[in-house]
Amino acid sequence: MDLSFATQLAALARLIETPQEPGVHRLSETDERRVAAAALAALHGEVDPSPGTTRAGGAAQPWTVHRYRARGPEPGAASAEAPKP
């Protein structure tokens, strides 16, 4: 969420510096990099200039990996099914 606010702040700064026509505008790559650099500096991180492999859209994980994928019941958890007579 902090990156969302930082990105909004970068967009506002751009609007103050360079007024735009009403409408939807893409945030420049320069502004995106400025936000990312500030976030990394705050976390004492650094940028890996060559990530090695890239995925479509710059995704960190392949589309087949989903962190909210339904999993089977936890071991020892009660079953939701009623016992069969």
Secondary structure elements and their pairing?
Elements: H1 2-17, H2 29-42
Helix pairs in contact: 1-2
Short description:
By secondary structure, this protein is mostly helical.
The value of Rg in angstroms is 22 Å
Number of strands: 0
Give the CA-based shape: extended
SSE topology string: HH
Note the main sheet. none
What's the multimeric state? single chain
**Total DSSP helices:** 2
- Broad structural category: mainly alpha
Query: Distance between termini?
Result: 51 Å
Strand fraction equals under 5%
Rounded mean pLDDT score: 75
> Helix coverage percent of residues?
25-40%
The residue ranges in which pLDDT falls below 50 over 5 or more consecutive positions are none
How does this structure look, described?
The protein is an all-alpha fold. It is built from 2 helices and no strands. It has helices at residues 2-17, 29-42. α1 (2-17) crosses α2 (29-42). The longest helix is centred in the first third of the chain and has 16 residues, at 2-17. The chain is extended, with a radius of gyration of 22 Å. It starts with a helix and ends in a 43-residue tail after the last helix. The mean pLDDT is 75.
Q: Any key phrases for this structure?
A:
mainly alpha; 35% helix; 85 residues; single chain
